């Protein structure tokens, strides 16, 4: 039921993010099968010459603390020259 509520609140006509998105053309009765995901990348320096780049994924439907709702996909150490 949560997915139905989420998709019913989306403005497919005026929201530019959905202009060419395939979900726009799906029947409203099929939208409960599609979950919206967020992919987030971030980087932070942790020494004078190194930074850590991360990529995580989470659901737009979930709530709670970041550690409980996001899945860390990768973390890469970069050396800054």
Structural description of this entry:
The protein contains two helices and three strands. Helices cover 14% and strands 36% of the residues. It folds into two domains: 1-35, no CATH class; 36-81. The mean pLDDT is 84. The chain has helices at 2-8, 66-69, and strands at 37-45, 50-59, 70-79. With 81 residues, it is mainly beta.
Averaging pLDDT over every residue, what do you get?
A: 84
Helix content: 10-25%
Task: Name the helix and strand elements from N-terminus to C-terminus, one letter apiece.
Answer: HEEHE
Separate helix tally? 2
How many domains? The number is 2
Tell me the β content.
35-45%
Query: Major sheet, described briefly?
Result: 3 strands, antiparallel
Q: Could you tell me how far the N terminus lies from the C terminus, measured between alpha carbons in angstroms?
A: 51 Å
Biggest sheet: strand arrangement:
1-2-3
Number of strands: 3
**Structural class per helix/strand content?**
mainly beta
The best one-word shape is elongated
- The unreliable regions are none
Radius of gyration: 17 Å
């Amino acid at each position: 039921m949560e997915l139905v509520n989420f998709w019913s609140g989306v403005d497919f006509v005026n929201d530019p993010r959905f202009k060419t998105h395939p979900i726009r053309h799906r029947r409203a009765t099929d939208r409960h099968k599609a979950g919206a995901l967020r992919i987030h990348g971030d980087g932070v320096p942790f020494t004078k010459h190194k930074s850590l780049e991360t990529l995580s994924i989470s659901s737009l439907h979930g709530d709670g603390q970041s550690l409980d709702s996001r899945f860390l996909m990768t973390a890469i150490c970069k050396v800054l020259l």
